[in-house]
TrEMBL record:
This is Mycothiol-dependent maleylpyruvate isomerase metal-binding domain-containing protein. It comes from the Bacteria. It comes from Lentzea guizhouensis. InterPro entries: DinB/YfiT-like (IPR034660), Maleyloyr_isom (IPR017517), MDMPI_metal-binding (IPR024344). Residues 8-92 form the Mycothiol-dependent maleylpyruvate isomerase metal-binding domain. One of its GO terms (molecular function) is metal ion binding.
Amino acid sequence: MDIREVVAAERRDQAELLSNLTQQQWEAPSLCAGWRVKEVIAHTTLPYRSSTGRILREMLKARGNFNRASDRMARKDAEQLSTHDLLDSLKANIHHPWTPPGGGPVGALSHDVIHGLDVTVALNLDRKVPLERLRLVFDAMRPGHLKYFGVDLEGKRLEATDMDWTLGEGTPIRDEAQNLLLLVCGRDLH
């Protein structure tokens, strides 16, 4: 399996889905706390539109805090760019080789899948991430990911109902794999 092609397929699927959103949906809250759909897409397309210099300047302003810098850039870009601009950026970069630091191509897939779910689940859209993509994301997970998202699964066992995947020990929590991925990433689904 060519992971770069899987990443491209995910981006292509998202571009098609986003092409059909109304302006009201672009302005709606996502599962990313404090971000509308527009900020999420500004964030996911940031690597295609921003220079290393801009990112470094923002990191300095944020005193090295990537989340703070990322938030500032997503908000600024969502304010300055139209939904058309953001969608065009995604479409033009379906095959972009960007990967998150230390994440490789599977990290890029994880980034796109998780933020895609932040949009589709928040908007209650009927999109299921293909299970083979979720399998790649789950297989790449490490204990540090849970720590990064501040998720405490002590005494809980996550069990996917649509694929063979479990995580943890204890009281079972059963749901579709994509919902469990959001749970692992600290998203509130209620």
